Amino acid sequence: MAESFAFGIADRVVGKLASLVVQEFSLAWGVKTQVEELKDTMSTIRAVLLDAEKKQAKDRRLSIWLGKLKDVFYEAEDVIDELEYEALRQVGGAWDEVRNFFSSSNPLSSRLLIGHKIKNIGKRLDKIAAEKSQFDLTERFGDVPILHREREMTHSFVRASDVIGREGDRENIVRILMQSDHDPAENVSVVAIVGIGGLGKTTLAKLVYNDDRVVSQFHKKMWVCVSEDFEVQRLTKEILTSLTDERCDHLSIDKLQNRLRNELEGKRFLLVLDDVWNTNRDKWLELKAFTMGGAKGSKIVVTARSRLVASIMGSSPAYELGGLSHEECLSLFIKCAFSDGQDKLYPNLVEIGRDIIKKCGGVPLAVRTLGGLLYLKTDEYDWVSVRDNEIWELEQKEDDILPALKLSYDELPFDLKQCFAFCSLFPKDYKFSNLELVQMWMTQGLIKSQKNQEIEDIGNRYINELLLRCFFQEVVEEIQRVWYYFKMHDLVHDLALSVARPECTMINFHSQNVSERVRHVSLLDTHWPEEEDILRFVGKLRDVRTIWFPMVKAGPTSESFVTTYVLRFNHMRVLDLTNSSFEVLPNSICSLKHLRYLNLSNNDKIKKLPNSISKLYLLQILLLDGCVSLEELPRDIGKMMSLQHLEVTTKETSVLGNEKKEGRGYFNSLRLLCIRQCNYMESLMKGLQSLTALRTLVIADCYGRASLSVELTALETLLICNCANLDLSYGFRGLERLQVFGIWELPYLVTLPHWLLQGPSSNTLRHLLIHDCGYFRALTDEEGPLNLTSLETLVIEECPQFSALPEGMRHLTALRRLDVRYCPKFSALPEGMHHLSSLTQLKIEKCNKMLTQRCQPRTGEDWNKIAHVLDICLDGIRILRTNTQVTKKRGTGGLKLHPKPRNDTPQ
User: Fold this and answer.
1) CB 757 within 8 Å of CB 732
2) 20 to 30 A Cα–Cα from 200, which one of 262, 425, 777, 849?
3) Exposure pattern of 347-375 as b/e (b: 16+ CB <10 Å)?
4) Residue 313 to residues 220, 222, 282, 300, 870: CA-CA distances in angstroms?
5) Regarding beta strands 298-304 and 319-320, do their DSSP bridges make them parallel or antiparallel, or are they unpaired?
6) What is the pLDDT of residues 373-395, one digit of tens each?
7) Where are the alpha helices (DSSP H) in 166-252?
8) In angstroms, rounded to a whole number, what is the distance separating the alpha carbons of residues 559 and 575?
9) In a 3-state reduction of DSSP, which class is residue 480?
10) Is 22 helix (H, G, I), strand (E, B) or coil?
């Protein structure tokens, strides 16, 4: 099941070969012909790679050919990156002087060396490319949908006695189907059951379809298996056949739709569309139009793996199916692994089975897969073997769990496939941060740049796409639209491991079998080994590009480890030295020309960094937060003109040094700056002028008396946390693009600073978050309108002195969400609240009890101010307004539309 990802690498290299830097280099250094020939050869090969990757699973020769190609592709990328590095080195890191590099003044030896490397790569690639004719490959450009094996068509019958653990879910769905619709404009509503492959969505739909209450509720029932082919004419025929038991293959689409509309006219019907993959809304609306003549209360039940599908089909909210409990999984496992009653004879095997089902993460198909592997096997050795091996290492039949999950993977575009596979470097149950993951993807070149779009925004869009497709789950939003966490289901992680091997691997220093093709290594040791073990381990690795330590409190303890890795792996892109405890970073770090990501965070012993680190001209991410002994940043750090993200803890009074001393072009690519535990900070940087690209600034846990009177014209997000002595009165200027402003634990802040409310940010600010500010009492101390014309979200939490929203609130016409929580003096809403026509969500919790009474539906004094709000939550009681009625529920009520995993569900 392993993927080659050769197309993604080739696409990246071809893009670099076409770049301005390479074009000018090739012309100036007399190798333009060789570069063009290399680009042409790679483009020709790239055209057949998508087809080759699809076919390699059934042809070992093809798999070997792709492996040889990838080795050359990687070497080509290294040479191109070396060229870019040399160009920056010659001009000391200044991008605007790179053109001067392309001249005859550069050493002849450098030009000859790089030119020779390009010619050599071209020859090797030509030789390998000549072999492609023996594989009968078809050219494919871009992401052509993959033709899957035909999934067995589903039917509507199931014996309820065969289904374990879905009674509660059945009751929930039946309850939804029995409810009358509150929207007078729609006779037909959609209920989507969403979850990863193998959860039992189809089985649940069958249980509901055959429930006696459902049978008596609907005049007509239809079941259609949709699968990948959402072809309207075919589906109309299938619906009619299910409805009438008559074939209608000979009818045109016009006659089909006429007949279907006539059959459903005035009838309350239930239509199940099983296994829907379609994301084309126009196709869905065309099919849906044929059914809209049904009677009030008609329902369409959809099963899908993607939240996007549910959204397109108009289901809001979707019913997200959870996993089975541990005991439910055990019951199902015993049913699949033993014949009737046999489990009583082998209690030792049942105990091993308890451990085996922990792998399944509550997914019934995984339980059936492992139970089926052991059916009628009574030798304890077989059971222990399954228990001690990863699911992705076990033999799988076509209908088993990983092939079922891979259907979802196959639907991804190639750039998302690479990004998903890279997640295999993180251990199971890892709490991903969107910032960390996007940084990793960036530095590996996995995010495909698009015109006029920021690379971080594209990366976050990738994450959102994977969330919609259920590859990620359990999202916890830390800071709205900026910083959030999520996890990956264990079985989805198994899928990532299966497609990413052998290039991405999780190992430890004592692992015996390490593939020579591994390029990205995640080390899972929790204790640092002896130096001899490290040297032995390093000898097993070849051309590693990533060294990653995802485990907490495990990091290098000596400088010798870093020196060893620097000397051995000079093509490394990512080096993670988190939680290390060495005192000196070796000068030789500068030899890692290709390095994009360096993490030294939480090293509490290191005092200085060598100035040679400033020669890492391609470095994009540098993380130094938690380095509490670090006295200062290297003198020339501002000349690292590829540096985009910097997180820092330092004892310097001017965190980023002195720009006037350093000269022009200082930090002019920096986009994210996080300043943490800088307790001596007085300013960001003396003479600060050049942070013109900075989009995000975070200042946290800084206790010094600092005044930040700076101009940041590109800043979009400003977050300040636990900085008691920070002076905000004369703060930031030129905030023409600020969209998110968040403050936490500023005990002396009384009102919002004037520069926020009256400067250019008053027209751009969309999200305002205020948390745990002990003396904060009001948004503003001035009367008149509050002119935050773009504000969509206002959250105020744990501010004990906060007592009222200003009357000028009526001017916040864009406000959609208002949360006020744990503010005991907040007792009434302003008069102008009813003017907030965009407000759809209001949450008031643990404020003055009088306020809760004032907001009660129809009887409260403030009810008329908020009666237009669709979703109100008062101290945990949700008040939902529709066109016809107001209902009250505690939390989400008895019906969990977004159920949290049960405590006994394996996570």
Assistant:
1) no
2) 425
3) eebbebbeebbebbbbbbbbbbbbbebbe
4) 21, 18, 10, 10, 22
5) unpaired
6) 898 889 999 899 888 887 766 76
7) 167-178, 201-209, 212-217, 232-244
8) 14
9) coil
10) helix
